Amino acid sequence: MRHIFSVWIFIGLATAVWAESIKVASLSTVLSDIARNVGGDRVEVREIIKPGSDPHLYEPTPGDIKKISNVQIVLANGLGFEPYLDKLRSSVEKSGVTFVVAGSAVKPIACMEVDHHDHSHADNATDPHWWHSIANVEAVTLQVRDAFIAADPVGRTEFEANAKAFEDKLKSLSKWVRLELAALPKSKRILVTSHDALGYFAKDYGFEILPVQGISTSDQPSSQKVRHLIQEIKDRQVKAIFAENIENPKVLRQITIESGANLGGTLYADGLGSGDAGTYLGMMRSNVTTIVGALQ
Ligand SMILES: [Zn+2]
């Protein structure tokens, strides 16, 4: 009896030692975080897109393509966020890599400012910044969980428990966001931003996005559009603007000086940041705290 027991312990140890973790390449900092939460120790996440970098400017290097062909699963946003996705997919297809595309698990919404979008999302009709809706992140958590189970059926119980724990955190986050935003009456729920990234957030929480139309590096401060925006900020008594994507400091100064609005601080639009904003939960908390603090 003791003998059999030892054999079982031996087999157990051997499995633990030999079990290879699933190798995952991630094209999104948010997806990396979801993967780490759901995968735990059974998954090794290789971040192709690093926190703090601009994913819109990214193009896969030959080194990245090599990295990606050596994994089992690639996590991508889809919805046109990665204009290179189809090409990437066909170049690593023969390596047997599975693509998990978040866009296919979420309810897409249309871009609010198609004409004035100052970075190139390949599919202009759809807003690819799906993660600004917590409900979408819940859906993608289940999608990632199922992909991991398919790749590593032995890990099922663990993936299910991890996904459940993360879902619970998302539910608490959701409650917290609603409580925080209760401080802002409907008339103050206006986001002045040129970056059309917060559409999902705006839709979930009844915000209006007042677009900084066409104000990019190329626009001149004297333009009709800028004056129109300044007037609207004044008329509607908007206290702050979120200006990360207005790259023209002269225009920015003109808008704040003439409208009397403050700069509202940094919103994480295209992915996770560092420090507290280095996780999805922290990033959302940071955005909501910034928005409430600036507009209250
Ligand atoms: Zn963007």
Question: How is this structure best described in words?
Answer:
The protein has 296 residues and is an alpha/beta fold. The chain has two domains: 17-176, Rossmann fold; 180-295, Nitrogenase molybdenum iron protein domain (Rossmann fold). It is 45% helix and 10% strand. It has ten helices and eight strands. It has helices at 2-18, 29-39, 62-69, 85-92, 134-151, 156-181, 199-205, 224-235, 249-259, 280-295, and strands at 22-26, 43-47, 73-76, 98-101, 190-193, 208-211, 240-241, 262-263. The strands form three sheets. Strands 2-1-3-4 form a four-stranded parallel beta sheet, covered by helices on one side. A two-stranded parallel ribbon has the order 5-6. A two-stranded parallel sheet has the order 7-8. Helix 2 (29-39) crosses helix 5 (134-151). The longest helix is centred in the middle third of the chain and has 26 residues, at 156-181. The termini are far apart. The chain binds zinc ion (ZN).
